């Protein structure tokens, strides 16, 4: 036989799936539908399975404590308030816990900022074995708002769906995997063509627009910026950073890593091993430029080369001079670099996610090609790296403050040398070579960083008034 529960006109309840371990609710049998205080209400996800995100101040009078929530939408209905006004509201279903009992209830979302209680419990949510004593309060076990200050409670907050933007112009393996893995985890992942974004830049409400509409609030942005649009792409990322959106890779790190001269200067400033590199603008300095790097063979490389394009091996000094003259004739920016013979056309790609090397592969160039890029016909196999190589890769990714980086190393007689730090590394080669779900590991890091959690706004102290000086 089910035990009868007694409710007063005010009780403590918990909505654990929403991350709300303690709420004072007003019990109102005159209202059919329950209502929860919510603001910043925003829908997301596919039309067939829409979800809603919202935030709540669970403690009346404490607007500094903000709890982000998300849930599937089960309905949208008009609700008439006590003053006779009809309001369209989203309806969600979630378990409600009272004492040792728990059952699912339907809740509508509305702004109750002016109400004394953050939640109204209507008769639809009351079970048959609940009796109401309208003159009493707190007939059920009392809870405390102190739980919102508990580290344990914050860490055990439910996994909430994220809204994620992938900035990409290509429908390639990496983009498809990012969408596929994110949706499998219950997130909403949207692919945004970077060049179709435009920005409203002002000090009060900076915005990013796309195809005639303002883009919504994203929990995270995953940049996949092509080399040809680096300046515009990083400008879009800066705009998201201004808004306060978490970006997996920041604009400054992408900009620095894309310019090979800038990248090598960053590496040198951190005393990270790399091939000896030289750069000059004047054609009069060609001989000295070559001398700074050493004897032929030498590498001549365009500053913004990608996938092995614009990288030339000069077997002799004369050949190097000819390539340099040709690049200067094209008004191209380039650098001259030491050729590490002992690497024998192989390099090591270390994939770094959130300060950890999660996978590594050895890339070998196609027959007769000193470049090991997979896009140029190279092959890849999983490889075990040394502690020195791991530390070098981590330091290189950290130097550019990248949450995701492909660090390319050469094995030399004097230790690992960083060739390049790639801020948009491809996922196909490394996933196949390592047989790991690299995209899943990437989402683990995004969820740990961008997962909505209780936020406390810092209250600024009142300015002290200094007595006038005499």
Automatic annotation (TrEMBL):
Keywords: ATP-binding, Ligase, Magnesium, Manganese, Metal-binding, Nucleotide-binding, Protein biosynthesis. Residues 264-447 form the ATP-grasp domain. In the C-terminal section; belongs to the RimK family. GO terms for biological process: SOS response; translation. It comes from the Bacteria. InterPro entries: Asp_endopeptidase (IPR008503), ATP-grasp (IPR011761), ATP-grasp_RimK-type (IPR013651), ATP_grasp_subdomain_1 (IPR013815), Peptidase_aspartic_dom_sf (IPR021109), Rimk_N (IPR041107), Rp_bS6_RimK/Lys_biosynth_LsyX (IPR004666). SUPFAM superfamilies: Acid proteases, Glutathione synthetase ATP-binding domain-like. Its cofactor is Mn(2+); Mg(2+). This is Probable alpha-L-glutamate ligase. GO terms for cellular component: cytoplasm. GO terms for molecular function: ATP binding; metal ion binding; ribosomal S6-glutamic acid ligase activity. PANTHER family: RIBOSOMAL PROTEIN BS6--L-GLUTAMATE LIGASE, RIBOSOMAL PROTEIN S6 MODIFICATION PROTEIN. It comes from Primorskyibacter flagellatus.
């Amino acid at each position: 036989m089910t035990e009868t529960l007694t409710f007063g006109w005010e009780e403590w309840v918990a909505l654990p799936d929403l991350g709300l371990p303690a709420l004072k609710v007003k019990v109102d049998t005159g209202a059919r539908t329950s209502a929860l205080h919510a603001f910043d209400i925003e829908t997301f996800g596919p039309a067939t399975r829409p979800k809603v995100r919202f935030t709540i101040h669970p403690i009346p009078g404490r607007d500094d404590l903000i709890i982000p929530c998300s849930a599937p939408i089960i309905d949208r209905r008009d609700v008439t308030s006590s003053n006779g006004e009809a309001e369209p509201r989203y309806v969600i279903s979630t378990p409600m816990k009272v004492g040792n009992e728990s059952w699912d209830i339907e809740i509508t979302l509305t702004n109750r900022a002016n109400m004394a209680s953050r939640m109204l419990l209507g008769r639809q949510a009351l079970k048959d074995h609940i009796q109401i004593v309208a003159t009493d309060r707190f007939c059920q076990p009392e809870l405390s708002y102190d739980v919102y200050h508990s580290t344990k409670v914050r860490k055990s907050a439910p996994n909430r769906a994220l809204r994620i933007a992938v900035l990409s112009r290509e429908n390639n393996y990496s983009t498809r995997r990012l969408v596929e893995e994110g949706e499998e985890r219950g997130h909403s992942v949207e692919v945004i063509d970077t060049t179709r974004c435009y920005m409203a830049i002002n000090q009060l409400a900076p915005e990013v627009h796309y195809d005639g509409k303002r883009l919504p609030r994203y929990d995270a942005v995953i940049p996949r910026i092509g080399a040809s649009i680096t300046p515009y792409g990083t400008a879009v990322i800066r705009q998201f950073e201004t808004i306060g959106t978490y970006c997996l890779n920041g604009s400054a790190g992408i900009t620095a890593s894309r310019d090979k001269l800038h990248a090598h200067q960053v590496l040198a400033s951190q005393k990270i091993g790399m091939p000896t590199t030289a750069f000059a603008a004047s054609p009069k300095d060609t001989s000295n430029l070559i001398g700074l790097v050493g004897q032929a063979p030498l590498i001549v490389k365009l500053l913004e080369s990608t996938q092995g394009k614009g990288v030339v091996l000069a077997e002799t000094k004369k050949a190097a001079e000819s390539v340099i003259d040709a690049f200067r004739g094209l008004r191209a920016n380039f650098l001259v670099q030491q050729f590490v013979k002992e690497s024998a056309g192989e390099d090591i790609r270390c994939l770094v996610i959130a300060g950890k090397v999660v996978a590594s592969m050895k890339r070998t160039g196609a027959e007769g090609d000193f470049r090991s890029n997979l896009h140029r016909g190279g092959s890849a196999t999983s490889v075990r790296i040394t502690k020195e190589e791991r530390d070098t890769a981590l330091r290189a990714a950290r130097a550019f403050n990248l949450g995701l980086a492909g660090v390319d190393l050469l094995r030399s007689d004097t230790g690992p040398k960083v060739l390049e730090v790639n801020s948009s590394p491809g996922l196909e080669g490394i996933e196949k070579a390592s047989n790991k779900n690299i995209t899943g590991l990437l989402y683990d890091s995004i969820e740990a960083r961008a997962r909505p959690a209780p936020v406390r706004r810092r209250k600024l102290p009142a300015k002290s008034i200094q007595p006038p000086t005499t």
